[in-house]
Every structure is written in structure tokens, then in C-alpha cells.
Specification:
By secondary structure, the protein is of the alpha+beta class.
């Protein structure tokens, strides 16, 4: 033990463990488990592994509700990433994780290292990363601090992904006051693997050597896991933010993939949250083994580092590898070729202990089961928030003076506006397998050497979950699936990033557990099991919790790239149809909508969400997907943020064509048009049908029993025109709509 570190007695008497995030009860439990008082290093090790970020102590009982298996699942939760079969001996590997607290303090490195960490989770499974996505939440752009956080986070994401050569192909960006000071940065990575090459994080085989590979260890990121489990991140915690090096990670990725391909790797794991501590303990726990490690052998880039600092450092671009005994030279040779270090620091044991050696002897000696299996699991109380019982029925009527002007205003709100300012900073085309880049409903990347492709998406809506946690959770899954379906893909599985406020607040925990129930129900209906994910709690600043924001990352499969469908209109005179019940949009669609957020901010959270039926949603999605595969559909786009008119405007802008739309049969008046045009009732898809296949499309869609309505047809003149029996309701040039949509975010950021 280093001389300047507190003694065992001081840790207890001065309650130093509280500084690490441990409670008095947890400290007492540690004493009970190991039969003595822990020293300073051991206290630090327990604190990070028992933190919310690593142990999931608040969320574990809730996560058990998720469906996690199915015929397509090769690896579910519990490993570095989930794996799904895509046929022909191939599989897709994917996961999403948060880096919210670090980004609030140091947005460039916080976002960049979030990308680096999720990439490592993919290639540690033996998979080649092929795509990155993200889901971002920031406060309004009229605030200088929010612009700073937004701009630097986007730069960090682009800087890391571009340097490492993995395309960033999709995502979402939302702006709302509830994310001011506490942004959300969720990063998702997707990889491809041959099923015979899957690697896992097991430290098995007594005597097998344990190696640290990759970058040297420094003092950055110490107690990052504890920091991520706390409320209200502050500037003083900047040292807890890691520093990334994408060029080093590129070398590390290639070296690890080459090493795994030799078949001599027993187990491998990224040193992410809690660094060497979590990777060693978790690998030993999975294998039911022990590990002995000598931290004096860990390559360091700073002088005088203690065992405590080495064990808790979250320096980036490092992996822990267990090799077959006698095969260490293979790792040495491969890593030397890539200009990296591979160093034996210990070996696997059969005594179930995590033993840390340093110059002074044994720095820590703890049963692995005490660290991992005995981590506290909390049964937190919850209480339904009172505001849920005070919500009013969603308004059917809302007075609007000028529908064209309202549409332009909505298109220029940053949440709806073009995100080109964001994704133009990302390289979406590197690797030359990107069929659909950012900007459509879902991204599409090819599976090399096949006709197959993967459709990828991230989706979430915190305001909807706030207004109805269970329904909002289900709607997030439904929207993700809908975005894959309109691209021509069959949804396969989910990875989720569950972002919430302080779980110690009864209403926040209610939002968490109830929305998780909605996610579970929807995943069962769509047959999309949850195979990986992340929970991020304590997202609050200055006493204000974020909206409950579960983000759904979903992957779908296209068996043939010929089925790829995009949202842009393709040809004049093609008919436009709505799949789904338009009447629902009229009757209650404004609840939770961007329209209310833009035009009635004080009233935006007063109203209930529109009705939602999972079975109906599944039927409409199935009908749309089959219609695409039958060749009826030229373009498809889901109705979501901003409602029907925004969906039509986006299709027009994308295709450079106009449309004539006619409303004749609806019980409408001037006041209820706002609900028709801008309501966000779910389960609706706009499709452009090939005009020579309209009759066949109608015959088939009627057989499915799917609600549908002919809206009008695409026109060559670039004007969006909506008429009723009483005359023209709206007429706007596509150029003016495009200008409003494209210019919003650049105007704020410039």
C-alpha cells in the first residue's frame, strides 16, 4: 500500500468510503462478506463494481422482465454485446451505451470516448465493426452552453469514428429544455462476424496467462464509473473523463481481430467502466475462476501510479486478454507488428479470488463472488406521479391561422429540421457498403459478399414516455420497428439505452419500471428480443430530472438489397396512400406532439397521448413490409414527429417533387385540421405506390384488412398542395419548405 493512502482504520473511521459512493450499509456488508475491514484499494474496487453504472443494482430487477431469447439470438445480455443470426453462418453483433455524464463536463472527449468504448465492445466479441449510430439529446439552441455541448459532442463523435474508419450512418437528435446541462449521448455500434469466430469474456483455465494489451495506463478516468452513477456532474470531476485516441484504437482493433482469429484466445474483454477492475472481475465471475495480477507489470504512461490508480483507471484503448498457456508469444508477435504492447500481468487461478499484487505485497485480495455476485440488488419503491392523473384528453381542435406558415415553423424547429449539419461531419460512406446514408428513416449497410443488407435505427421520445410511461415505452419500440419496415427490412432484435433521472425519487423509478414494461410488451409483439443494452440513471442537473428517455437501437435484415426502400418520392403521377387510421390522428393526435411544443409550450405537457394498439401497429407494419417485397411500393415514410404534413413535406423535399392531396370524406372543421395535419398518432405510414401497380396494391391491401386511404398523387411541379371540398387549405413550394427545414440548425450554430 502506498504510504500516502489512508489506512484501513481511516477508511472506516473517517468514512472515506462515502466519497467513493458507498453507503454505510454497503460498507458494513463488505466487511461481512470478506470477514474484515477492507483497505483503501479494496474499498475503491468495491465502490466501482458496486456502483449503479457497473452493478445495475437499481435496474436489475426491472431488466429481468425483458424478453431476451428467440430462434435468432446467439448471445443475449451478459456479454460485451449481443449477437443475432442472419443466416449462412453469419451473425450481426450490436450494442448501445451511454456517455452522458462525461459529455456534460467535457463534450468532445465525453462523446468521443463513448464511441471508442462501444466499438471495443463489438470487436472484443470477434466482430468487425461496420457501422456507428447515435442518439443525442440537448437543451434548446438559444442557450450558449447548449450550443457548446451540442457542437463539441458532434465533433467528438465525428472525430473518433472518422479517424478509425467506421461509417457513422444514422441516429437522432432532439432538443428540449429538460436536457439542458444534462445532455444524453448514446452511441451504438454494429459489427459482422462468422459464427465460428465468436469470442467471449471468460477467464478460464488454471494457469492461463492474463495480458494487458493496447495503450499504456494513465490517471484519466479514475472513478469514472462512480462519477457516472452520481447526480449533477460538476467541473471538478473533469479528471473522471477519459481521453481517447482513435488511431490507437484502430491498431488495437486490427490486432485483436487478428489475435482472436488464431483460435488461441481463451477470453477477451474491453477495459471500459472501472477499467482493469471490472474486466478482470467480470471475466473471472463468468468462468467461476480467480485471477492474480501484479500491477507493477502494467505498462504506465505516468510516474508513481499506485495500485489503486492502476486498478481504477479508465484509460482508453486497452483490453484484457486470457491466452492459452504457452501461446503468449502469438500475442506478443501480433501486437508488436501493430506497434502495440502486450504484457503478461498475471494468471488464472482456481481459488475464486481477485488478487492484486504490487511492490508492497498484496494490495487487494477479494472473493470474486463478493465483488460481482454479491453486489447489492435494490428493491426500490415507486409511486405513480400525480400529474398522470391530471392530464386532459388530447385536444381534437386547435385554432391555426395559416397552415402553411405552421408547417414552415415546424420544419424549422431543431428537433424536426434537417440534421445535415450533424451528419455531414461524419464519414458515412467509408467501407463503401453504405446503401442508405443518414437522412432517411433507417440507415442500410450491405453484408459483403451477399445480397443481404442490415437496416439500422435508433429511436426514442422522452416526452411521450413522460406523458404515459408504459405506452411511451411501447411506442418507442414500435417507431424503431416502423422505421426498419419502411426501409424494407424485417426487425430482428433490440439493444436499449435506458436514460432516466434519480431512481431514488419514487416518481422517477415508476417511470423507469413502467416504461420498461411497455418496452417488454412491444418487443414480444414484434418478436424483437432485447439482446444487449445499458442503463444510465441519475441524469439530473440542478434538481431537474431529464424526461424518462429509453432509446431503442434496432437492427433489421433485408434478404435482398433489391428491397431497399427510401422515403423520397420517385415519380410524378404515382398515387399516395396512408396505411393506418387517419381518424385517430384527427381525434386525439396532438397529445405529446411537436406542434404543441412549438405553439403552446406552456400546455405541451397537459394532454394525454393518442390511443395506441400494439396489435394494430404490427398488422400495419406487416402489410407495409409485404407490399414492399411484392414490388408495389416506390417510397415509404412513417408519420412521427410533426405529424402527417411534416412527413409529406420531408418526402417532397427528399424527392424534389410535389403532390396534390385531397380531403373529402372527413368530419372536419377549421379547428380540427390542426390535429389532422400535425397530430402524431402512431401506426401510420405514407406510401407512394407505383401507378401501374395501384390496382394490384389495392386488391392485396384489402385482403389484409389494413386501414388505408388514398391521399392524392405525386406531381412534377414542386408544390405541396392540400385541398378539400371548400377549396385549397395549404399551398407551399417545396423550395420554401426545404429552406425552412435545411436552414434551422446551421442558423443557430453559426
Amino acid at each position: 500500500m502506498a504510504a500516502h493512502e489512508p489506512s484501513i482504520e481511516q477508511v472506516k473511521s473517517e468514512k472515506i468510503y462515502r466519497q467513493f459512493g458507498l453507503t454505510d450499509a454497503e460498507y458494513d456488508r463488505i466487511v461481512e462478506l470478506i470477514g474484515r475491514m477492507p483497505n483503501y484499494v479494496e474499498t475503491g474496487i468495491f465502490s466501482v463494481l458496486w456502483s449503479e453504472h457497473c452493478s445495475y443494482k437499481s435496474s436489475k430487477p426491472v431488466l429481468r422482465r425483458f424478453p431476451t431469447d428467440g430462434p435468432q439470438v446467439l448471445q443475449g445480455p451478459g456479454e460485451n454485446a449481443g449477437i443475432v443470426d442472419i443466416g449462412d453462418g453469419q451473425a450481426v453483433v450490436f450494442k448501445i451505451e451511454s456517455h452522458n455524464h462525461p459529455t456534460a463536463i467535457e463534450p468532445y472527449q465525453g462523446a468521443a470516448t463513448g464511441v471508442g468504448g462501444i466499438i471495443r465492445d463489438i470487436f472484443t466479441m470477434g466482430a468487425r465493426p461496420v457501422a456507428l449510430l447515435n442518439s443525442l439529446r440537448f437543451g434548446p439552441l438559444d442557450d450558449k452552453r447548449n450550443r457548446y455541448l451540442f457542437g463539441h459532442s458532434v465533433a467528438g463523435i465525428g472525430g473518433y469514428g472518422n479517424c478509425i474508419g467506421i461509417p457513422t450512418v444514422g441516429g437522432e437528435v432532439v432538443f428540449d429544455e429538460r436536457y439542458s446541462q444534462n445532455p444524453l449521448v448514446n452511441a451504438m455500434c454494429v459489427g459482422l462476424i462468422d459464427q465460428g469466430q465468436i469470442a467471449k469474456g471468460y477467464a478460464s483455465g488454471v494457469g492461463n496467462p492474463v495480458l494487458v494489451v493496447g495503450a499504456k495506463t494513465g490517471r484519466d478516468g479514475i472513478h469514472g464509473a462512480t462519477f457516472a452513477s452520481a447526480e449533477d456532474p460538476h467541473e471538478k470531476e473533469r479528471s473522471a473523463v477519459q481521453v481517447g485516441d482513435p488511431f490507437m484504437e484502430k491498431l488495437l482493433m486490427e490486432a485483436c481481430l487478428e489475435l482472436i482469429a488464431t483460435g488461441k484466445v481463451v477470453g477477451i474483454q474491453d477495459m471500459g467502466a472501472a477499467g482493469l477492475t471490472s474486466s478482470s472481475a467480470e471475466m473471472a465471475s463468468r468462468a467461476g475462476s480467480g485471477l492474480t495480477m501484479d500491477v507493477t507489470k502494467v505498462p504506465r504512461r505516468e510516474e508513481g501510479m499506485t495500485a489503486y490508480e492502476i486498478m481504477l483507471s479508465e484509460s482508453q484503448e486497452r483490453m484484457l486478454v486470457v491466452m492459452q498457456q504457452g501461446e503468449e508469444h502469438i500475442a506478443f508477435d501480433i501486437f508488436e507488428k501493430w506497434g502495440l504492447e502486450a504484457t503478461v500481468i498475471g494468471n488464472v487461478t482456481d481459488d475464486g479470488m481477485l488478487r492484486v499484487l504490487d511492490d508492497d505485497g498484496i494490495a487487494a485480495e477479494i472473493p470474486v463472488t463478493a465483488l460481482v455476485d454479491e453486489a447489492p440488488v435494490l428493491s426500490r419503491p415507486s409511486l405513480r406521479p400525480g400529474y398522470l392523473d391530471e392530464l386532459l384528453p388530447s385536444p381534437r381542435a386547435w385554432q391555426v391561422e395559416d397552415y402553411g406558415q405552421a408547417l414552415h415553423t415546424l420544419l424549422s424547429t431543431p428537433t424536426i429540421a434537417s440534421k445535415a449539419w450533424v451528419y455531414h461531419q461524419y464519414d458515412a460512406l467509408v467501407r463503401t457498403e453504405t446503401f442508405v446514408p443518414p437522412g432517411s428513416d433507417a440507415a442500410v449497410v450491405g453484408v459483403p459478399g451477399t445480397k443481404k443488407a442490415l437496416a439500422l435505427v435508433t429511436d426514442g421520445n422522452g416526452r411521450q414516455v413522460y406523458l404515459n410511461p408504459e405506452q411511451g415505452g411501447a411506442m418507442a419500440v414500435a417507431e424503431a420497428a416502423r422505421n426498419l419496415v419502411v426501409t424494407g427490412a424485417k426487425p430482428l432484435a433490440v439493444t436499449d439505452c435506458l436514460n432516466y433521472g434519480n431512481p431514488e425519487k419514487l416518481d422517477v423509478f415508476y417511470q423507469f419500471e413502467t416504461s420498461a414494461q411497455g418496452i417488454s410488451e412491444a418487443c414480444r409483439v414484434f418478436e424483437t428480443p432485447v439482446i444487449s443494452g445499458n442503463v444510465s440513471l441519475y441524469n439530473e442537473s440542478r434538481g431537474v430530472d431529464i424526461y424518462p428517455t429509453p432509446v431503442i437501437g434496432m437492427v433489421g435484415l433485408l434478404e435482398d438489397v433489391a428491397h431497399i426502400t427510401t422515403s423520397k418520392w420517385k415519380a410524378a403521377e404515382n398515387p399516395l396512400y396512408l396505411l393506418g387510421d387517419l381518424q385517430k390522428g384527427i381525434d386525439g393526435g396532438l397529445g405529446g406532439s411537436e406542434f404543441l411544443r412549438a405553439f403552446a409550450i406552456d400546455q405541451a405537457l397537459l394532454y394525454q397521448l393518442p390511443e395506441f394498439d400494439l396489435a394494430e401497429e404490427k398488422q400495419i407494419q406487416d402489410a407495409c413490409l409485404l407490399a414492399i417485397h411484392k414490388g408495389f411500393i416506390a417510397a415509404a415514410h412513417d408519420v412521427s414527429d410533426g405529424g402527417l404534413l411534416v412527413a409529406l413535406a420531408e418526402m417532397a423535399i427528399d424527392g424534389g417533387l410535389g403532390a396534390n392531396l385531397t380531403l373529402t370524406k372527413w368530419d372536419l372543421n377549421e379547428a380540427s385540421l390542426a390535429s389532422l395535419f400535425f397530430g402524431e398518432a402512431p401506426s401510420r405510414i405514407v406510401v407512394e405506390v407505383h401507378r401501374d401497380k395501384e390496382e394490384a396494391f389495392l386488391k392485396w391491401i384489402r385482403q389484409t384488412g389494413t386501414s388505408h386511404l388514398r391521399l392524392g398523387e405525386v406531381t412534377r411541379d414542386a408544390v405541396l398542395r392540400v385541398s378539400s371540398d371548400d377549396g385549397v387549405l395549404l399551398e407551399a413550394s417545396v423550395d420554401s419548405l426545404k429552406n425552412a427545414w435545411q436552414g434551422a440548425i446551421p442558423a443557430w450554430m453559426n
